[in-house]
Amino acid sequence: MFELKKASLFDNALPNITQKRTMALEAVHTAAGKRKEYVISKRMKHDFDYALALAGIVSGGTVELLPHQSQEACASNCSTHFALQKGCADKVEDLLKSHKYIFPTDAKGKVLGDQPFCDDATIDTIRLSFFDGEDSFGSQCRDDFVSVLEENIEPELPVAMVCLIATMIYAILKDWSSGNPPSNAQVKSFNASSHVGVYKAHQATLNRIFEGSMKKYHALMARLYKAVSAIENSASTASSSAGDYLDLDAMAEE
Fold it and tell me: Which residues contact 243 (CB under 8 A, 6 or more apart)?
């Protein structure tokens, strides 16, 4: 299950049925190799039905990408960082427009279009969900956070992880759209699959940055990794896209 969770958070948090089966096959094969289960690995290579049966066990299980504690933390972060309170329907509508919520703002409220996904709510929720302590997912997978650049090996956050958290923030804000705070049941019932269009919109934003400049993409994702792994570092020393706010030209390359 851990290998499938890792594949989900590093590659695709919302796969379709075919993609999930492929991910499960690869996860089982990887797990067998790491645990030196050579008999299983060999049989998987020569017996596709056997491999599918094992993958079915894995993919049929529940992979908890976001525990309830993370969902509750996200709800708390959103209400704090966006100053949400009863009667805030207009504010929420503004935040949801073109996914404004993924951008920080300056002291005057101006959207900083060159810093997508760098808002405090996103950073704090990623940190609490995946980098909170030595036994966290981020700590266990430290060596898997790599760079897209050969000349700069600073670790980056993966697209799937960033998009999943941004999608959860969207869901929390939608729950606030009536102007009333969401119930505990609403917060705990978050299902990313219900917002696949939003997830893909966030993917499209990051893909646009990558295609526009790999250096700018790297600078953003490396900055995010540093921000969310701050505790670790200190210990060791079809919704609309965000295009209306994204300022690719102004983004830093390093």
Answer: 98, 205, 208
